[in-house]
UniProtKB/TrEMBL annotation, chain A:
Gene3D superfamilies: Mur-like, catalytic domain
Domain Lipid II isoglutaminyl synthase (glutamine-hydrolyzing) subunit MurT C-terminal, chain residue ranges per copy: 322-428
Domain Mur ligase central, first and last residues per copy: 51-175
Source domain of life: Bacteria
Classification via InterPro entries: Lipid_II_synth_MurT, Mur-like_cat_sf, Mur_ligase_cen, MurT_C
Protein name: Lipid II isoglutaminyl synthase (glutamine-hydrolyzing) subunit MurT
Binding-site positions, Zn(2+): C205, C208, C227, C230
Pfam families to which the protein is assigned, alphabetical: Mur_ligase_M, MurT_C
Keyword Ligase tagged: yes
Species this chain originates from: Oscillibacter valericigenes
Keywords: ATP-binding, Cell shape, Cell wall biogenesis/degradation, Ligase, Metal-binding, Nucleotide-binding, Peptidoglycan synthesis, Zinc
UniProtKB/TrEMBL annotation, chain B:
Species of provenance: Oscillibacter valericigenes
The CobB/CobQ-like glutamine amidotransferase domain, residue ranges: 4-194
Lineage: Bacteria, Bacillati, Bacillota, Clostridia, Eubacteriales
Pfam families assigned: GATase_3
Highest rank taxon of the organism: Bacteria
Keywords for this protein: Glutamine amidotransferase
UniProt name for this protein: CobB/CobQ-like glutamine amidotransferase domain-containing protein
InterPro entries, A to Z: GATase_3
Length: 442, 245
């Protein structure tokens, strides 16, 4: 009876919520109040895929859903990104019959890494994709090992883990776990010999703290790692990017599946690989998966083209407090050929209040902007002084740097003069402050 | 004048942009006309730290911290001798805990610090995070920073921040924070503490210079972006602190 009521309340709450445009976690919250173990009482589909990790969750989940649907499967997932237990409950119950059967072939869940253990207390994923564990939102997450410890209890012995073979930390989830599939990237032309970035999270083995070595590095501390002491190393991969040419935008998986990348970024390659691996594990044919991924354009709007005066611009959404997300986009700019200006905006670190937590600025490798095609760097927003202080410790010639606290003023100055390409690097929380000043391209 | 900075475990104890403390200190000392060398010390390598003008260790994960403690114990007598002699040092984040008598981790296992002070730290499974706005006896301006730790430190007799109007201190909400004795500065305020607090940077630099007889100019080196950033942060945190009262 409690189950029936919880489902009914949740469905009703969701319908009302949609009408008034409210978020999707409230109905689940009510349902959990009525029946705390409701998630243990529903009948789940054959496959329950969960995706967690620091970076790439939303992109990976979106691609998995698209591939599965192309493979003829019905998929239910928390599309609106409410990825804590309440949001997961809403998703599950909204798509359940009143007797509690989830009407889909696959339940797909993007899970907040810190709350995964709570979400999976009453049921467990059949496949659990962990994309990576990086420094991310340390104000709430503490540090990557803290997040690791938080995810660990969410892993059920029967769950098949789908792990990133190139990440020294998240690969530790395989220790003592039987069912593991690995995805990873072989050596490729854009690799470096040693880790890059402002800090060295790959310097020491996460298992025994002995120094680590790398055969090759794809970016930051992601690559073919090898502990000099305990044997922790990049494992053999089950789903492998065997060839990658970022300049041409071609990716080959397992030596046979060739894909054209709409977004030529190595980070995108990992999302593609993770999605490919998860879908293959659910029985989707490789050519079906490849057909979807080929020229796949993510719908989550992380990149937005626009014009500002005579400038052709691109917004590269980077999460504040996530140095690898920033490094990703700075690397993209560094690879650009044409002369450009880069506008970096940090106006609100927290959406709720002013915080002094700016340590993540020091973790970003802004030195990547010390490139000949980068003619000018404009630092804007409330934290422009903190940015300027950080930039004064890069090798970028100071005559290239302008500090303009006011975002509309920075936009107006750009609009008035010049026609070089413009890259804007900022967070979700700040991007509308510049997008309101430009003409967006569809 | 040549000055030597010892940076303990720069790749192991490297959370929250800790290294930036060394960057701004070096820039400040160079602006005073000093030549500065930074010597990194890595675990297992051993190093002669006698003759140092400044010691630094930054924040690490609790597992990295424990590993660092095992290596750092060999430097205990030398660090204590330098401290006694008035050498300046900064231990930021979890590194502060290693100056004390012991650290108990969240699994309940206890290991030793170097015992420069008698305080003890007990770590738990709760993360203590939040902005801090407080005062120090070193200078009149407020201290700003961010706390991100899982331990409570008991038995500090001489804190660095003598009072907080916002944030969690060594062992209590709004309690005193950090540790200060002679020229030993320690605080769990994470990350680039000296970047965020230009006055604290001056105090540390002055301590280094005093010990080596380097005269400080009437007009101190000034870094306008650091000052402007600090002014905004101090103003905003003050508003938040007042709104909470």
């Amino acid at each position: 009876m409690k189950k029936f009521l919880a489902i009914l309340v949740c469905k009703f709450g969701r319908a009302v919520g949609k009408l008034v445009g409210k978020g999707s976690s409230m109905p689940g919250k009510f349902a959990l109040k009525i029946c705390p173990d409701i998630l243990a009482r529903v009948r789940l589909p054959q496959h329950v895929i969960a995706v967690t990790g620091s970076n790439g969750k939303t992109s990976t989940v979106e691609m998995i859903a698209a591939i599965l649907r192309a493979g003829g499967k019905t998929v239910v997932y928390n599309e609106e990104g409410s990825n804590q237990i309440e949001g997961v409950t809403t998703t599950v119950l909204t798509h359940a019959s009143l007797t509690g059967a989830v009407r889909a072939d696959v339940l797909l869940i993007e899970s907040d890494e810190r709350y995964a253990a709570q979400s999976f207390r009453y049921f467990h994923p059949t496949e659990f994709v962990i994309t990576n564990l990086y420094r991310d939102q340390l104000t709430r997450n503490g540090h990557p090992e803290w997040v690791y410890d938080a995810i660990l209890p969410a892993i059920h012995p029967e769950t098949e883990l789908i792990l990133n073979a190139d990440d020294p930390l998240s690969s530790c989830f395989a220790r003592g776990h039987e069912k593991v599939k690995w995805f990873g990237l072989d050596r490729c032309p854009s690799d470096t010999d040693a880790p890059t970035g402002a800090y060295r999270d790959g310097a020491y083995c996460p298992v025994c703290r002995a120094p680590m070595e790398y055969d090759y590095v794809h970016y930051n501390h992601i690559g073919a790692f090898r502990c000099t002491k305990c044997g922790h190393r990049k494992p053999a991969t089950d789903y492998t990017a065997t060839a990658l040419d970022l300049e041409r935008g071609t990716l080959t998986i397992d030596g046979s599946v060739t894909i054209q990348l709409a977004f030529r970024s190595i980070y995108n390659v990992y999302n593609v690989l993770a999605a490919y691996a998860a879908c293959r594990e659910c029985g989707v044919a490789s050519d079906t998966a490849a057909g979807v991924i080929n020229n796949y354009i993510l719908k989550n709007g992380r990149m937005q083209k626009f014009t500002l005066g005579a400038h052709r611009g691109m917004l590269l959404t980077s999460k504040h407090e996530n140095s690898i997300a920033y490094d990703t986009n700075l690397r993209y700019i560094r690879a650009a050929q044409d002369p450009c200006t880069v506008l970096v905006i940090v106006d609100a670190v927290s959406r709720k209040y002013f915080t002094s937590e700016t340590s993540w600025l020091w973790d970003i490798d802004f030195n990547q902007l010390n490139a000949p095609q980068v003619q000018r760097v404009i630092l804007s927003g409330r934290y422009c002084n903190d940015l300027a202080e950080r930039f004064s410790f890069t090798d970028i010639p100071w005559e290239k740097v302008t500090v303009q606290p006011d975002i509309p003023a920075a936009a107006a100055e750009l609009k008035a003069a010049g026609s070089e390409d413009l890259y804007v690097v900022t967070c979700f929380s700040d991007r509308d402050k510049i997008l309101s000043q430009v003409v967006k391209e569809a | 004048m040549e000055l030597k900075i010892i940076h303990f475990y720069p790749d192991l104890m490297s959370l929250y942009g800790s290294y930036a403390n060394v960057s701004v200190l070096r820039r400040y000392l160079e602006a005073l006309g000093c030549t500065v060398t930074v010597q990194p010390v890595r675990p297992g390598e051993g190093a002669d730290i006698a003759g140092a003008d400044f010691l630094f260790m930054g924040a690490g994960t609790e597992r990295a911290q424990r590993f660092a403690a095992g290596d750092f114990v060999q430097y205990g007598p030398a660090v204590k001798a330098l401290a006694e002699d008035g050498c300046a040092m900064l231990f930021a984040g979890t590194a502060m805990e290693l100056l004390g008598a012991s650290v108990t981790d969240k699994d309940g296992e206890t290991y030793s610090g170097i015992g420069l002070a008698a305080f003890t730290t007990v770590q738990g499974s709760r993360r203590i995070v939040g902005d801090v706005y407080g005062s120090t006896d070193l200078y009149p301006e407020p201290v700003v920073g961010f706390m991100n730790k899982c331990g409570e430190t008991h038995g500090v007799e001489t804190p660095l921040l003598t009072g907080l109007t916002m944030g969690f201190g060594n062992e209590a909400e709004k309690g005193p924070e950090g540790f200060h004795w002679k020229n030993v500065f320690a605080s769990e305020l994470t990350g680039p503490l000296l970047v965020k607090n230009p006055r604290l940077l001056e105090a540390v630099a002055a301590a280094i210079c005093a010990r080596r007889g380097i005269p400080l100019p009437e007009e101190r080196p000034a870094f306008p972006y650091a000052e402007a950033g600090y002014a905004i942060t101090a103003e905003q945190l003050k508003l938040r602190a007042e709104a909470k009262q």
